[in-house]
Prior knowledge:
The protein is built from 15 helices and twelve strands.
Amino acid sequence: xxxxxxxxxxxxxxxxxxxxxxxxxxxxxxxxxxxxxxxxxxxxxxxxxxxxxxxxxxxxxxxxxxxxxxxxxxxxxxxxxxxxxxxxxxxxxxxxxxxxxxxxxxxxxxxxxxxxxxxxxxxxxxxxxxxxxxxxxxxxxxxxxxxxxxxxxxxxxxxxxxxxxxxxxxxxxxxxxxxxxxxxxxxxxxxxxxxxxxxxxxxxxxxxxxxxxxxxxxxxxxxxxxxxxxxxxxxxxxxxxxxxxxxxxxxxxxxxxxxxxxxxxxxxxxxxxxxxxxxxxxxxxxxxxxxxxxxxxxxxxxxxxxxxxxxxxxxxxxxxxxxxxxxxxxxxxxxxxxxxxxxxxxxxx
Length: 349
């Protein structure tokens, strides 16, 4: 049986790998040992072996330019060596470029060389596939396999008013929610700026702060905003479900994005989402049909879109329609697509 080695083997704040390999396990042997054990197994193992790359930003992105160059060279040499040892290399593109890109030129070279060493690539959106083909000369085939979801990603949501009471939130104001990792590229300050002209609403920012400097900046940014609350910590599913049930809108004001697992999970839970008009998101959200869309990094557009969404007479129907739009993207269906894809990639040419 073909053995898949995911890289990295685990993700601290995302269930993606657990869900994906849970549905692939009946069809493949999944080896999720640490790289120190997985790399020798790949190099010296026998039989069909796949290195399934998901994220490699932290491998090559370091503050020092010299160290970043050295790590880039070692990473690409490792991929070349694995390919020489008949390991099939597949990359699922969660990020087309690093979230916090310290050295853009090296990041671009890294992406180009990874594409060159891969036997095949998958992207979650057609927009990402198009971007890669336009920006990077490659003959590596790129397939589109959507991000999977569970029927109840965070478990069953509690009743709206009960969830607000449990969280100690006001019961009489529209509640806007940002939920997820607190990172600079997610544009949270654009949403905070918008709250000055939305005094009738309250914003809660909840999630783990990956960048403590950025978190400090946000705290300073909200010092005089009485209608903004920041709750910076990792939320288990049960608590995340309370926040989602309590909110009127989930607002994700990204500056850039390749894939938003939070958007997929929120839509699967029937939550009405407000997102910027970035190409990958436009494949998931149709304005006024499965969510609401504003012009990226534009506070005025964001304010108008939030007001339009809050005033929509059939807002709950939009959440239901968002759920329906994901009907063909359950983990079982996505797992079947990956199974077909990986078996095809491993076939001798």
